[in-house]
Design brief:
By secondary structure, the chain is an alpha+beta fold. A five-stranded mixed sheet has the order 3-2-4-1-8, covered by helices on one side. Strands 10-9-11-12 form a four-stranded antiparallel sheet, with helices on one face. The protein folds into three domains: 2-121, Fusion Protein Consisting Of Minor Coat Protein, Glycine Rich Linker, Tola, And A His Tag, Chain: A, Domain 2 (2-Layer Sandwich); 124-218, TonB (TolA/TonB C-terminal domain, 2-Layer Sandwich), CATH 3.30.2420; 239-308, no CATH class. The longest helix has 16 residues, at 121-136. The chain has helices at 30-43, 48-52, 83-94, 121-136, 141-145, 175-187, 262-273, and strands spanning 2-9, 58-67, 70-78, 110-118, 150-159, 162-170, 202-210, 220-225, 239-246, 249-257, 288-294, 304-308. The protein starts with a strand and ends with a strand.
Length: 310
């Protein structure tokens, strides 16, 4: 028997009203299984040796055994597409200290199957910055009084832990909420990047949610899935790549969203770096920033690109 877990986004309170029943085997205790899944995903980090080879991140399905407070025998069932990333996942799972099992049969080993994501350093940094901003933001009192809610999308540049050129890209339609985000961006101390990303500048777009319990922000949560069916490998979506084009040259090529296939993402990054982009994705009329979506079922020259004029 095997228990399967999936990672889901934008799900909060999925187990609301679901009581923990101690008189069940620990692998049937959804609260504990959710906690295990979160600990595993939060412990998976992008390996430094992969960054030197310019490997994007990827998704994998892994199998491991929970055995009396330890995770043993991790196996890759569906690969990320990168041997380096797969090896890092296996090594990191073995080093995890999982939560103590809660329920019956706690001394009985049990297999768990789980989808995990290895985010490249840039995206991991983006997620950390987003979480840091969301954690420290102060909900304006006057906005609370009038019941104002909404999502503010801020864009800014980040380098060596500092933020500059911050602006509101998409307003919440409430001035107090927008100003609260700009103020926080000017005062918060963001984490510094790894040493191998020192002096590199990133252009980021971060959503900040003001909800009063009504707005759900895109935050990773763990959802318990009880099924005996095999998890079918998801079809990888398109990869989204950002870059700057000026005076006939391409620069600042970076990942915005992963396809889930590390080898495909790397080929797409290489193609953009080499200038194999659609004709309408280049302009010599000043500096332009582009986002381009590349799918694995179409050539790069047929990809769609949008311009972000800075």
């Amino acid at each position: 028997m095997r228990t399967k877990l999936l990672m889901a986004f934008g799900i909060t309170g999925v187990l609301a009203g679901c009581a923990t029943t101690p008189a069940v085997p620990y692998w049937d205790n959804p609260k504990w299984v959710n906690e295990l899944g979160k600990v595993v995903q939060d412990s998976i980090h992008y390996p430094k040796n992969a960054s030197k080879e310019n490997f994007p991140g990827g998704n994998a399905i892994v199998l491991f055994t929970y055995d009396n407070g330890h995770l043993r025998s991790p196996t890759i069932l569906i690969s990320t597409g990168s041997k380096l990333l797969d090896a890092a996942i296996l090594e990191q799972i073995l080093s995890i200290s999982p939560p103590q099992a809660q329920g019956l049969n706690t001394e009985t080993p049990h297999e768990f199957e789980m989808k995990v994501t290895v985010y490249p350093v840039e995206i991991s940094l983006f997620r950390t910055i987003q979480e840091e901003l969301q954690t420290h933001i102060q909900y304006p009192q006057r906005a609370i009084i009038v019941g104002a809610t909404g999502v503010v999308v801020a864009s800014f540049s980040y380098r060596n832990g500092s933020v500059f050129d911050a602006k509101i890209e998409s307003s919440s339609d409430n001035r107090a909420l927008d100003q609260a985000v700009l103020y926080e961006l000017q005062t918060i101390s963001f984490p510094k990047p790894p040493v191998w990303l020192k002096d590199k500048t990133f252009s980021l777009r971060v959503p900040v949610c003001f909800g009063l319990g009504q707005v759900v922000c895109p935050k990773a949560e763990t959802r318990y899935v009880s099924t005996d069916t095999t998890i079918a490998p998801p079809k990888p979506p398109c990869v989204e790549i950002g870059y700057k084009y000026a005076h006939g040259k391409i620069s600042n090529v970076h990942l915005i969203a992963l396809s889930g296939d590390a080898s495909f993402d790397k080929r797409a990054l290489t193609a953009v770096n080499e200038g194999r982009i659609p004709h309408d994705s280049r302009s010599d009329s000043g500096i332009k920033h582009y986002n381009i979506s590349v799918c694995n079922n179409s050539g790069l020259t047929n990809a769609s690109a949008t311009t972000n004029q800075h």
